[in-house]
Design brief:
- The chain is an alpha/beta fold.
- It has a single domain, classed as Alanine racemase (TIM Barrel, Alpha-Beta Barrel), CATH 3.20.20.
- Helices cover 39% and strands 19% of the residues.
- Strands 1, 2, 3, 4, 5, 6, 7, 8 and 9 form a nine-stranded parallel β-sheet that branches.
- Strand 1, helix 2 and strand 2 form a beta-alpha-beta unit.
- Helix 4 crosses helix 5.
- The radius of gyration is 17 Å and the shape is globular.
- The relative contact order is 0.16.
Length: 226
């Protein structure tokens, strides 16, 4: 029997609540971000009707089309993909959150292009915690200097850090990378910091155990990418 999208979403939410209990954390303290990149607006509507409100997109043009299609839904849009300099104006005007700020140049462009009439843009700094050449993000030892520069930008609200650690198996191995992220953020002195965006379909339990406040889940909700 085929499992519906609403059932898969419910299963993920149950995993999340179980992970919170196992970690001794308050129920509901971790936000579920449904990663809807490459998925249709129709699939997003099914998730929305099942209670999901936060959605993450990586491809700007695809996201803008879906935003027009879903303009009458009360969705909070998160940009989680690589950011090209020529796309910052559209990103800053169409998203409430940006998780993937990995260069000061990009942060400055987002700040300059955010309307002074809008609330500050919520951002996370992307960290390359595993040192992989193929991954975006600043090295973890450069985080303090990077965060200090970004914290001075008035139209951005520095909320936390994001990372995509190297895939690994074993709960303890997964926790190690997430622990490094948590400890790195704990060293930062900024009062606005409240967000650890980490953990995906295969490692959300380890991420929650190490303090994730947002987990980014795609496959477990929507199925494999087409």
């Amino acid at each position: 029997m085929m499992v519906s999208l609403a059932e898969r979403l419910h299963e993920v939410e149950q995993r999340l609540r179980s992970a919170e209990r196992a970690a001794g954390r308050v129920s509901g303290c971790v936000k579920l971000l449904a990663v809807s990149k490459t998925k249709s607006a129709e699939a997003m509507i099914l998730a929305y009707r099942a209670g999901q409100r936060h959605f993450g997109e990586s491809y700007l043009q695809e996201a803008l089309v879906k935003q027009r299609q879903l303009a009458h839904f009360n969705i909070t849009w998160h940009f989680i993909g690589p950011i090209q300099s020529n796309k910052t104006r559209s990103i800053v005007n169409h998203f409430s959150w940006v998780h993937s700020v990995d260069r000061l140049k990009i942060a400055r462009r987002l700040d300059e292009q955010r309307s002074p009439d809008s609330a500050p843009l919520n951002i996370c700094l992307q960290i390359n915690v595993s040192g992989e050449m193929s991954k975006s993000g600043v090295p973890i030892d450069e985080l303090p200097e990077f965060a200090a520069a970004v914290s001075e930008l008035p139209r951005l609200r520095l909320r936390g850090i994001m990372a995509i650690p190297a895939q690994t198996t074993g709960f303890d191995n997964q926790r190690a990378a997430f622990r490094a992220l948590r400890m790195a953020m704990e060293q930062l002195p900024y009062k606005t910091l409240d967000t650890l965006s980490m953990g995906m379909s295969n490692d959300l339990e380890a991420a929650v155990a190490e303090g994730a406040t947002i987990v980014r889940i795609g496959t477990a909700i929507f199925g494999s990418r087409r």
